[in-house]
Amino acid sequence: MTTETLDAVERTALLTAALRAVESRREDRLYEDPYAAALAGETGPGLLAEVHAATFPPGRARTLPSTPDYNAIRTRFFDDYLQRAARDASTPQIVLAPAGMDSRAYRLGWPDRVRWFELDRPAVLAYKEDRLGTAVPRVNHREVAADLTAEDWERRLEAAGYDPAVPSVWLLEGLLYYIPEADARRILHRVAAFSAPGSRIAADIVGAAALTLPHMRGLLDVFAGWGCPWLFGTDEPEALFEEAGYTVRAVQPGEEDADYGRWPDPVPPRGEPGVRRVFFVHGRRA
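Request: output the structure for the sequence above.
Response:
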């Protein structure tokens, strides 16, 4: 199975896996992922080299956010979030959409009662299965061959054992800024409609200015050049999720709950306009 079957956005999952592989080799690593290098394959390190060249230009000060530090913090933040949620007996099912090259089902321990669903396109799941080889998940693991823009993902997820009448935990990681705003809003509403009251959700999303600021151009051009430009950002993430029926909190990398001693830049106050920012959003459906 080769990466040629993956589309542009899906190939960014190989970048994320390459970042996890690099983080796992650090002495001060925030997590350890023994599967990341295999999942990144031969393509992931090349994508990471392009991002690194844009982020850390030789002979000039860095003006872009540090992708390695951001990715390390994001991974650890959502690791911790999902592990806390899994300890709550009232939420026995976890859904990752898109699953991408995520390896949490393999590298972290989970309660026996948890049902773990990975939802993504068939090509992604096939590539991932090929790269993982004989690795065995540490949870009751089910694959769902669909994506959140499909008309029938709810039916496919339910057929895999998901129960919409029971609270669930959803992680939408590395998704919302790659899709148009209307699709992002539609997906959040569909997920909420297919989640029982008390269900949890977590996601990351960039601020609106991150899509237009001149000093972001270097990073934005890399992703656009790969065929997966950033399309959506918001400075009001709480309102975005509340519109779909969630009560959420949004934190920025570098704030107290999302730092881990690794965020290298000042954290802009929420009221400061026209600055780059990113949010980790998490909360519950009423």
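The mean pLDDT is 95.
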